Amino acid sequence: MSNNKINDHLDSMLSAIGIKTGRQNYTYHSAGDTYTGENLYGILQAPRGDATEAIVLVAAWQNIDGLLNRNGVALALTLMRYFKRWSLWSKDIIILIPPNSRTGTQAWVDAYHDAHDNQKVASLPLKSGALQVAVAIDYPSCQSFDGIHIIYDGINGQLPNLDLINSIVNVAGGQMGMRTAIQGMHSHDDSYRDRLKTIFRGMLKQGLGIGTGPHSSFIPYHVDAVTLVPYGEGWQDEMAMGRVIEGTFRSLNNLLEHLHQSFFFYLLMQRDRFVSIGTYLPSAMLLAANFTIMAISLWVKSGQSALLAKGEKLESSQSGIVAGCHAASTVPLSVFNGLDYPVSGILLSPPREELLSEVHACSGALLTLWQYSYFQPLLPFFVFAH
């Protein structure tokens, strides 16, 4: 069945429950391929709102892996019918059903913010207010699941507000007793190894900057968005998934302003543990200062031909001293990790010892970074002074 015929059936279903619908055609040419399709969306107008803010519920026909999103589309339609019965909404709710998770969502978001090419992407016949949050459902399987995987990585390393992730974790874990996971770590045991793997996976995805789901198209427009993907085999079903989304939408419906109190720059080690920008930004600033000081030193040497002979030995001397600084930092690291820490004659419990081990590991890494950042730029002056 073609995309247009499918949208005809969905259009009649949404219109039957009193939701205004609209369609959008688009055509993209990328890497020698042509992507074309038709987006279908509907707007549930808030009984207690003035159409100035909206929340988006996304359910693409195909997920990011090309699988048919059977339960995702069915659950989204069911939720819209359920939401229509309530009179407590203060924000409009938009349901978006694109043919795929990449091009369809991108075309709709671009057109909603009037940032599209009219020759390739059609304008939207219906619009609501400013988009606050978007939640995408990726539920291709028909079996019961164990928990929900929260995908939050955006394009070019952009991230949603941390409060959105915290809200979903609290709704799923506190109200439903459901497990949640991030970065594909479905069996996270809160150990140092799993925290390290989680944070490295997040850094890798941010560094690559590619989209990881339909939510990635919203984040560049300052719309906090995530994708929810069930995982594992357990006793949770579509009803539990719907209740999590319902609780999330009710929480977002109570917002008086856009999410801004929490962090936009962070590295998650677990679903409820993170490293804020205030922790890792100083190291990046030290590295940036290193390049600046090195550039100044090279500029100072640029007109000194008499020191050219000594300058030829600079590169090898720098490499040896920097390597020595890195090697020296392992001494306090190994000493600190090998010590016992008695408190009133009682050794610390294993979790506390593990925490101290992490602290000392971070201290050793910071010591190495300080040595590298401060000694290397000054090496030219030490070499030329002698």
UniProtKB/TrEMBL annotation:
One of its GO terms (biological process) is attachment of GPI anchor to protein. The chain crosses the membrane at residues 280-300. Pfam families: Gaa1. GO terms for cellular component: GPI-anchor transamidase complex. Keywords: Membrane, Transmembrane, Transmembrane helix. The keyword Membrane applies. It comes from the Eukaryota. This is Related to GPI-anchor transamidase GAA1. It comes from Claviceps purpurea (strain 20.1). The lineage of its organism: Eukaryota, Fungi, Dikarya, Ascomycota, Pezizomycotina.
